[in-house]
Amino acid sequence: SLTLNNPVAATLVSPSVVTLTIEDNDNATSSNPIDNPGFYVRQHYLDFLNREPDASGLSFWTNQITSCGSDAGCIELKRINVSAAFFLSIEFQETGYLVYRMYKAAYANTANTLLPVKFNEFLRDTQLVGQGVQVGALDWQTKLETNKQAFAKAFVQRPEFLQAFPESLSGLGLVSKMELNTHITLSDVERSGLVSMIGMTPADPEKRATALRMVADDDDFRRAEFNSAFVLMQYMGYLRRNPTDPPDNSFSGYLFWLGKLNSFNGNFVNADMVKAFIVSGEYRHRFGP
Questions:
Q1: C-alpha distances in Å from residue 151, one per residue of 45, 140, 156, 163, 236
Q2: What angle do CA 200, 159, 2 make, to 5 degrees?
Q3: Residue 18: beta bridge partners?
């Protein structure tokens, strides 16, 4: 049964419950569709950008793999590079990675974890920021900026944000706490500029949203969190789960890959990180045998 309930800003009408039938059409000898270049690329659009691929993008990235012909070594490397390209893309950096940084600036790492955001929160909010956005399409920058502004304003009015940043907090207190959460040190000019922007109305959602975005977009902060976010997306993008969900049940895997990526200065190919996830049984079993 597929059930819709507890709507927000909407009213459900009948039917809100339907029967869903899942047909088992797999067999033990069938090939895994994730090995098909077109299927593989489309899945990355869905998992990292939360949208169907545009025709030109699908063709371009699929051709990166098929251009190898039957050269297995070339295919392996191209699959790794194509996969990483989705994390590195402008579209993901300005949607998913922005959400990650905003959570970090707002909450640091949540209690008893090494991460600022959980999978269900990340998925929900990334879809909000990226809704209707396709980098390269007509006027995509305007659509993205509109989404960012709306999301940030709603974000700072959520109960959990108001608990972390009471409306009684001064402008300096607001900025200082975000600075502490991100583990970066703003320059005197940056800090005073933010405090001045907030002015005498630090409870104003518009100003709070602007301050949060400015801290989240700080260049030093972007660089500092890049590898952590890259590793996190191996779990959330490929495996569709938190790093501590079963079968891991701890941060040992996440810490292993973060340490390895750091040791190779972010070189994901030499660290074997992307390769390890896309050939893992957990990833491949999402799609077939």
A1: 22, 16, 9, 18, 21
A2: 145
A3: 2
- 3-state secondary structure (DSSP) of residue 40: helix
**H-assigned helices in 5-139:** 37-44, 55-66, 72-88, 90-93, 96-107, 119-130
Alpha carbon distance 122, 17 (integer Å) = 26
Nearest to 234 by CA among 78, 84, 45, 51: 84
Type of residue at 15: P
Write the CB contacts of 37 (distance below 8 Å, at least 6 apart in sequence): 62, 65, 66
Residue 226: CB atoms within 10 Å: 17
How much is the average pLDDT of 128-153? 97
| Residue pLDDT, tens place only, 155-176 | 999 999 999 999 999 999 999 9
User: What are the residues facing 3 on neighbouring strands?
Assistant: 17
> Can you give the pTM of this predicted structure?
0.89
The closest of 36, 82, 78 to 57, measured between CA atoms, is 82
Q: 128: burial class by Cβ within 10 Å (0-12, 13-18, 19+)?
A: middle
Contact 62, 41 (CB under 8 A): yes
Asked if pLDDT for residue 235 goes beyond 70, the answer is yes
Between CA 156 and CA 35 the distance in angstroms is 42
Give the DSSP per-residue string, 240-273.
-S-TTSTTT-SSHHHHHHHHHHHHTTT-TTTTTH
**Cα–Cα distance list, 225 to 95, 216, 259 (Å):** 15, 10, 13
For 18, residues 6+ apart whose C-beta sits below 8 A from its C-beta are 1, 2
45 and 52 Cβ atoms separated by less than 8 Å? yes
3 state SS of 142: helix
